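Please decode residue identities from the backbone states below.
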């Protein structure tokens, strides 16, 4: 899957300034495959997506950090679209899109998009009082990451890193949902009940991490009622 992801990044109409792959203490050919495709490989020994993603953001040198996962296959204009959106909207701190599933049947694809992805954007959005970022398909300003990076609990592998990061943005920050940011991902979590259960468990763990300090009513009050 990583090979497929990196091939899609190599076909971009606007080439990436750099590609960073985080080797999260893997025991397979991750680092070899990444280097073969010219990526910069960063090693992160602490297990978990939060630690790995944070390490990658730290290592990125560009003004805009675009994030996808090893199973992502990004559209040829993905980077160009991201660059254009941030140029057109200087007040945007992050932009995110959704996904389709390249290895599910048409019916399963529709069900996963409606009852998993749309549900994530609805319920996570209600919790953070903003548009939540989706880890397989989003980008943020490097300056925003530097502002929040010290607060991210990198030693907790039980968190949903994208949901957690969404809590760390202010409710008044502008996070743009852009359907033109097109990505395909694997539907393997829906074929493994334990993997899907782990995702639900991480969502609950992320909520516990931020409650009661970041209760949704407080965040909505901050967004809607407090003056700028």
């Amino acid at each position: 899957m990583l090979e497929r992801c990196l091939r899609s990044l190599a076909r971009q109409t606007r080439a990436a300034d750099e590609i960073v792959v985080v080797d999260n203490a893997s025991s397979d050919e991750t680092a070899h495959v990444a280097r073969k495709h010219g990526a910069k490989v960063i090693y992160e020994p602490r297990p978990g997506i939060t630690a790995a993603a944070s390490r990658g953001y730290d290592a990125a040198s560009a003004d805009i950090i675009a994030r996808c996962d090893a199973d992502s296959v990004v559209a040829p204009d993905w980077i160009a679209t991201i660059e254009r959106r941030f140029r057109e909207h200087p007040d945007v701190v992050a932009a995110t899109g959704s996904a389709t599933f390249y290895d599910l049947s048409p019916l399963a694809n529709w069900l996963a998009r409606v009852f998993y992805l749309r549900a994530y954007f609805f319920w996570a959005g209600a919790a953070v009082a903003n548009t939540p970022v989706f880890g397989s398909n989003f980008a943020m300003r490097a300056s925003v990451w530097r502002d929040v990076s010290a607060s991210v609990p990198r030693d907790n592998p039980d968190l949903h890193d994208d949901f957690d990061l969404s809590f760390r943005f202010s409710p008044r920050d502008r996070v743009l949902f852009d359907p033109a940011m097109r990505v395909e991902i694997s539907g393997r979590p829906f074929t493994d009940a334990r993997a899907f259960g782990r995702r639900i468990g991480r969502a609950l763990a992320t909520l516990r991490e931020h409650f009661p300090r970041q209760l949704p009513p407080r965040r909505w009050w901050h967004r809607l009622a407090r003056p700028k």
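Observation: The two ends are 45 Å apart (CA to CA).
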